[in-house]
Design brief:
Helix content is 50%, strand content 15%. It has 20 helices and 15 strands. The strands form two sheets. It has a nine-stranded mixed β-sheet, sandwiched between helices. It has a six-stranded mixed β-sheet with strand order 10-11-15-12-13-14, sandwiched between helices. A hairpin with a 4-residue loop joins strand 7 and strand 8.
């Protein structure tokens, strides 16, 4: 019996090893994010790990971890083979049942040498940054949402005036201390004069750490909501990090901060802002609704572009027409424009620079063919979901959304998902929710709002079934011209769903 179990047993344990390494890698080895993954349906998620197959991205770290895990499995089987026949199966099942804990402890144990290595990298990056001194202007961008878009917009605008070879930006997902440090060590060169840095955090004090490395002179707070509240544990901790307190306090006296006034939480913090850093006087608020330092009006949203006019307090103004989807992009353009103007660009020059912005830089791309698809699968947060649903109103055909439930929202999760359900009922004809965590709350919101058939709000996890449901829904009435139908793929939707729908459009 021992030899009969050996090969399938090793396969099962190795599958579990890869699954838990994948999950820890996905959560960036952060205990808070890992814990938040299990804030709903914890038992179901743990049990499903025994049959789900997932593979991590095989970096050097993952390869070493995988070998360590495999050698550990071999050691376990050597031990099991030393046991009497009647105890072998009992102990094997015990090891298999506790493998999530065993492999998680393996990952966490490997973090000790990883942290030592990380500290060396951070120190090297800090030393290299210090050599540039004031010859390098660093712009730090943080917030709960809109960080990547604002970084992309600002870097594009500044490149028009200062040249692409003079402006460096952090790459996709390079927003942690290791990502930013690697960017400094590998990408930063003497010809760079401006460094645009996206800063993310999941702990209080992390943004301050990033500022100690990058030394920003200008800071941007894109907006604040409950995203990652489940990780931070409290709104106070979230406001300290992604809320911008640590970034603003790290700016020098002659620095500048741009804040998004249209974020309600930013508005509520206005009276506290000067208490963040008494030496910083240059704080500028931007809005689509009120006349502050920078504001926008005459806003027009079309299927494939947005147009508006920006005004500044110094009586400068310019018209903007940009190939972007949805009104949510305007607040990010305003923040980027406020910084660009601080660096000597006129609004007319900024408007010209915006012509180089591509739709995918906003994380929202329109794919047109037999059927229209909005690909917004880069990442998601509550504000993005509401904004993207609002954008769907520009389309006159049938509207479909495919999205997972949002994660890391903590105590606010139920209320937010209920409100998403209300917005779906207002806008969509079909909603497919690809994860079960807060599906009931979304459906409750749909029922509360009314106006949408309850049977058109579905939990479907299987990518092929999602594809078939959308096809059958659209084929119910073949007399309707599909050119105005639209499918919104929101959030971390399964890659297989995206692949199936892209085939369907052909």
């Amino acid at each position: 019996m021992k030899f009969f179990i050996l090969f399938p047993g090793l396969l099962l344990l190795t599958k579990n090893l890869f699954f838990w390494i994948w999950l820890w890698q996905l959560k960036e080895y952060h205990w808070g994010r890992f814990r938040a993954h299990f804030e709903t349906e914890a038992l179901k998620k743990i049990l499903s790990s025994f049959w789900r197959v997932k593979f991590p991205v095989f970096t050097k770290k993952i390869i070493i971890l995988s070998f360590l895990g495999f050698f550990f499995e071999i050691f376990i089987f050597i031990f099991l083979f030393s046991l009497p026949e009647e105890l072998f199966l009992f102990w094997f099942l015990g090891v298999f049942f506790f493998s999530p804990l065993i492999f998680s402890l393996l990952v966490l144990g490997f973090q000790i040498p990883t942290d030592i290595f990380k500290k060396r990298i951070l120190e090297k990056a800090k030393q290299k940054r210090e050599k540039f001194g004031e010859n390098l202007l660093v712009i730090g961008i943080t917030g709960s949402y809109g960080k990547t878009s604002t970084k992309e917009f600002l870097a594009t605008i500044l490149s028009e005036k200062f040249g692409k070879d003079k402006v460096l930006k952090t790459k996709e997902h390079q927003n942690s201390e290791m990502g930013i440090s690697q960017c400094i060590l590998k990408e930063l060169r003497t010809e760079h004069k401006i460094f645009v840095v996206e800063m993310a955090a999941y702990d209080r004090g992390r943004i301050k750490l990033l500022c100690d490395i990058a030394k920003p002179k200008i800071g941007i707070i894109t907006g604040i909501n409950q995203q990652h509240l489940g990780v931070f544990g409290s709104m106070e901790n979230l406001l300290s990090a992604e809320g911008g307190k640590e970034l603003i306090e790290s700016l020098p006296e002659d620095g500048m901060a741009a804040l998004n006034w249209d974020s309600e939480i930013v508005q509520s913090l206005k009276f506290k802002v000067q208490n963040f850093n008494l030496k910083l006087k240059n704080i500028k608020f931007c809005s689509q609704k009120e006349k502050l330092y920078f504001w926008a009006k005459d806003i027009k949203i079309e299927k494939e572009f947005i147009s508006f006019k920006i005004f500044s307090k110094d009586n400068d103004s310019a018209d903007f027409k940009i190939n972007l989807l949805g009104t949510q992009n305007i607040e990010n353009i305003l923040l980027a424009a406020a910084v660009a103007k601080e660096l000597g660009m006129s609004l007319e020059e900024i408007s010209q620079g915006c012509q180089k912005i591509r739709p995918e830089q906003s994380g929202m791309k329109l794919i047109k063919n037999k059927i229209n698809i909005i690909d917004s699968t880069y990442s998601t947060n509550p504000n993005a979901v509401f904004a993207h649903l609002e954008y769907l109103k520009t389309w006159t055909g049938r509207k479909i959304i495919v999205m997972p439930c949002l994660i890391e929202l903590g105590k606010a999760s139920k209320e937010i998902h209920s409100k998403i359900g209300e917005k779906i009922a207002e806008v969509c004809d079909l909603a497919i929710i690809a994860t079960e965590g807060r599906f009931k709350n979304i459906k409750q919101g749909v029922i509360k709002k009314g106006g949408m058939k309850n049977e058109n709000v579905l939990f479907i996890e299987n990518p092929k079934k999602i594809d078939n449901k959308i096809k059958s829904f659209l084929e119910k009435d073949l007399s309707i011209e599909p050119k105005n139908d639209i499918i919104l793929l929101e959030g971390r939707t399964s890659a297989k769903v995206v692949e199936n729908l892209l085939k369907f459009k052909e």
